[in-house]
Write a structure and sequence with these properties.
mainly beta; Jelly Rolls; 2 domains; six-stranded antiparallel β-sheet; five-stranded antiparallel β-sheet
């Protein structure tokens, strides 16, 4: 755990979307296997297509987005994770104003992405990859060895491979705003629980 580095979200460089329609800040990735990023969606238009990938989006700023494609409709709502097929040509419509979305992408034949709000404590299962966004709170990541890493507000920690059982704990006594911490996971299919919200 000592080699892991806590970083400021504001210092992550912005990259153009694959289709050129927006910008993304890459938080973590493993080759073509999976990636976790924050995207600024500022206008209606097409989403980039990623064949063979499962996608998950969680709106962390703004009211939300509606995705339409292949006769399907997927609402992306504030602080509600939604899983959908990256192989579909989706078109996004903002509900009211620009949003910031936490996006996870992972190979559909190998991984299951998930994201959840950190209200008190979340377990990080061995074999998974994790990204913890502290939001407006302070969080602490603890392992079995007793070592702990503190994630201050507005910063994040990427763990490319969880090698031992870990816990992420929210410091409820240190809120400085309304954005709650979020824990994003990429789990191997054989280790993950079934997901029911695939669109």
């Amino acid at each position: 755990m000592s080699q892991l580095e806590v970083k400021w979200l504001s210092l992550v460089p912005a990259q153009q979307w694959k289709n050129g329609g927006g910008v993304t800040r890459l938080l973590a990735e493993r080759d073509s296997e999976w990636r976790v990023s924050l995207a600024n969606v500022e206008a209606n238009g097409p989403y980039s297509r990623f064949d063979g990938m499962t996608r998950l989006s969680l709106i962390v700023e703004g009211k939300g987005v509606v995705l339409r494609g292949a006769e399907r409709v997927v609402p992306l709502e504030y602080l509600v994770p939604a899983i959908y097929d990256g192989s579909i040509d989706w078109t996004a419509s903002l509900i009211d104003a620009p949003v910031v979305a936490l996006n996870l992408m992972a190979r559909s034949d190998k991984y299951v992405p998930s994201a959840q709000l950190l209200n008190t404590e979340v377990a990080l299962p061995p074999g998974s990859a994790a990204v913890i966004l502290a939001g407006h709170s302070r969080c602490v990541v603890c392992g079995n060895t007793g070592t702990a890493i503190t994630i201050p507000p507005r910063q994040f920690l990427a763990i490319p491979s969880v090698e031992e059982p870990m816990r992420v704990i929210r410091d409820a006594g240190n809120p400085i705003g309304n954005h709650p911490p979020v824990v994003a996971l990429i789990e191997p299919i054989e280790n993950s629980a079934p997901r029911k919200n695939f669109a």
